[in-house]
Amino acid sequence: MGRFAEVFLGILTAVGGFVEIGxxxxxxxxxxxxxxxxxxxxxxxxxxxxxxxxxxxxxxAVKHRPVxxxxxxxxxxxxxxxxxxxxxVVNVLTCAAEVGGVALVWxxxxxxxxxxxxxxxxxxxxxxxxxxxxxxxxxxxxxxxLLMLVYVVTALYDGPTWSDIASGLVPRQPENxxxxxxxxxxxxxxxxxxSIMLPYETYFYAxxxxxxxxxxxxxxxxRVIVMVGFSLGAVLSVALVSLGAExxxxxxxxxxxxxxxxxxxxxxxxSVGLYAALLGMFFAFAGAAIETALxxxxxxxxxxxxxxxxxxxxxxxxxxxxxxxxxxxxxxxIILTGVDPxxxxxxxxxxxxxxxxxxxxxxxxxAADRRIMGAHANGIAMNVLGWAFLVVITVAALAAIPLxxxxxxxxx
Length: 412
Prior knowledge:
Strand content: under 5%
Number of helices: 18
Distance between the termini: 52 Å
Number of domains: 1
Shape: globular
CATH architecture: Up-down Bundle
CATH topology: Amino acid/polyamine transporter I
Radius of gyration: 20 Å
Low-confidence stretches: none
Helix content: over 70%
Structural class: mainly alpha
CATH superfamily: Amino acid/polyamine transporter I
Number of strands: 0
Mean pLDDT: 91
């Protein structure tokens, strides 16, 4: 494949995989609750994920080292083990929410029983990972997720208030808000940033770079994909906030479920808009489920020193294969209990914030070390931004659980 085509596909898959059920839920709900007031958190989270994914991809290209290998080396065995447990719990919760989201979308499309579709989803995911090559998993679900751009078209069709969008890019608290309303506001600020900077994205991105056999010559490719792909993906997030503010807030509708989230596109463009929204959600949720399951398997295999990777045949990486299979089995079992996938999203997003500093600190330290990275080490600007964001996510990690408890998960 030519270099231009590779870059183009990489950007498209980054855009298509930018929004999953957590970000869809929180951005729409934040827009319907606070209008454009939390738009700045989308920008903040996007800059953060660009920074750290660029570093992780650069390290993978230069040293062929995945993130969790660095975490164990830089934090020590005990701290790395705690991070492994925490990240695995977060990945499983996130994956379970995505599996439940896929079943909900299928139910809207087919009308079949929900629990039957959860079982069907489990079989579907196992077959996809077993038979499809890594690059085709990225392309099929990333490109399919581009159907979510129907929300961008819908937001433009409805006519966003551009002055309010510009105002929302400046951080400010709601005026005349009670202490409880401020707590809810900051809860959603933390949640939106977390939903964009979910740890599995960095784990999967760095491991995927090794799966794709990146070399130092691919550093430019890495930089273009994360900067352009994630920035364009952020446009989709902005559109979701806009729809929450312009479409759902005036109607006093809480857009937490996939069917409700698709209403704006359905009213604007009829059945075409409805099916585009639902199919886009299917590909986005399914892609995130696959990434989180594989991320769990990557992390465990890398920590324990097992052979890993989709480029290996299942029998050559048997424990790695068994791990992602068990993750899907556990996720399906969780959803079959009848628990609400949206409720799982809330827990996974909040607890993922706690893991963020432990995920990103080793990446930043290694990327800045010239003894390891040589000429490819961070420059001054990258180091300053990296440490600044580490402070921000550490503060968010400390605030996440108190805000969750105070606001009852943003419910008031």
